[in-house]
Design brief:
The chain has 10 helices and 20 strands. It has 345 residues and is an alpha/beta fold. The strands form 5 sheets. Strands 3, 7, 8, 11, 12, 19 and 20 form a 7-stranded mixed beta sheet that branches. It is globular, with a radius of gyration of 20 Å. 46% of the residues are buried. The mean pLDDT is 96.
Length: 345
């Protein structure tokens, strides 16, 4: 089979690889679709992010779906030919954090396509993949492999909404409308947010935000102080989900979130300076949001039932052979929201 391997920055190759037969509790998946994530782009563009660097070739990819091709002994839920969304998160189940239910903080996490540990955890952009049955969530008839592969980024956003606390009827600001920001709009709407305002630097992203459920949009590049009206009376928003990873966006959020409001820092863009006096004076709660766990099954259910329609986010699907072109397209926010690879061509 073939696998999409990053060797160093801008050195993306299709390499030959092998996969064996499924062991007890395992399923061999014929991969169908895989979405290119921001972390994949960091490896492609820079060879890593922050202190995380490539130290050996690594198969990329963690937003994937595929068809059950071979079933190992002991598997009871999955049958040959089933389309499944594959959860890339594989906690050990034995450490302190797993034993207290905080699986996304597992001390021995094996998350597909991650250079955090060494040896690196190989990813899922390959034509066949061995997974455990517990990683597989059944996809309903009529749902495409591309839609199923969107379950992973949707899970990230569902976890962010959960970190925010009660969202029913809340006034919510989402800063940044890339794929994650866009899915946060859908997740917040699903959580019964009362009003959703989205800020971004481009009109194209904001037009998309309006189409998928934002009540109002603000271009913070073209309009100086565009968010200033929301700072009156110490702030307008109950909740902000900061999805851009920009320090300036976080500072703006602190100005427009009301006293005792919540900011969920979801975007990653490096270390930020935080005006702590404002945090103290307004008693603002700042909480991080990292990956997900039980939200993956919830994401698949929402996609299966069409309660969340992820199709508008899929800008293009290219064959594995055109992987470099797919990554270049995914790099260009003016042309694409979510770019996916097809492993079936």
């Amino acid at each position: 089979m073939q696998a999409l391997t990053i060797h160093s920055a801008r050195d993306l190759r299709i390499d030959d690889a092998q996969v064996g037969d499924p062991a007890h509790g395992e399923v061999r998946i014929a991969m169908a679709a895989g979405g290119i994530c921001g972390s994949d782009l960091h490896y492609f563009n820079h060879g890593g992010f922050g202190t995380v660097r490539l130290r050996e070739p690594m198969v990329l990819g963690h937003e994937v779906s595929g068809y059950a091709e071979a079933i190992g002994p002991g598997v009871t839920r999955i049958r040959q030919g089933d389309l499944v969304a594959v959860n890339p998160s594989r906690p050990c189940g034995n450490c302190h954090y797993c034993n207290t239910g905080h699986f996304n903080h597992c001390l021995n996490m094996r998350f597909y396509g991650s250079a955090m540990p060494f040896p690196h955890i190989q990813g899922a952009f390959q034509q066949q993949l061995l997974v455990t049955e517990t990683q597989c969530e059944m996809v309903s008839p009529g749902v495409s492999p591309g839609e199923a592969a969107m379950a992973e980024p949707l899970s990230v956003c569902l976890h962010a909404v959960r970190q925010a606390g009660e969202m029913k009827d809340a006034r919510v600001l989402i800063t940044g409308c890339g794929p994650i920001g866009a899915l946060c709009i859908m997740a917040a709407r699903q959580a019964a947010a009362g009003e959703i305002v989205v800020s971004d630097l481009t009109d194209r992203a904001l037009e998309f935000a309006s189409k998928i459920g934002a009540d109002r949009t603000v271009n913070v590049a073209d309009q100086a102080g565009a968010l200033s009206p929301f700072s009156r009376d110490k702030g307008y928003f109950d909740i902000c989900i900061e999805a851009s990873g920009r320090e300036k966006a976080l500072h703006s959020a602190l100005n427009v979130v009301r006293p005792r409001g919540t900011i969920v820092q979801l975007g990653l863009g490096g270390d930020m300076n935080v005006p702590i006096n404002m945090v103290v004076a307004k008693e603002i709660r700042i909480v991080g949001s990292f990956r997900f766990h039980e939200e993956f099954a919830q994401a698949v259910r929402l996609i299966n039932t069409a309660n969340v329609d992820v199709k508008p986010l899929i800008s293009a699907t290219l064959p594995l052979a055109d992987a470099v072109a797919a990554f270049e397209l995914a790099n260009d926010r003016s042309r694409a929201m979510k770019v996916q690879l097809s492993f079936q061509d």
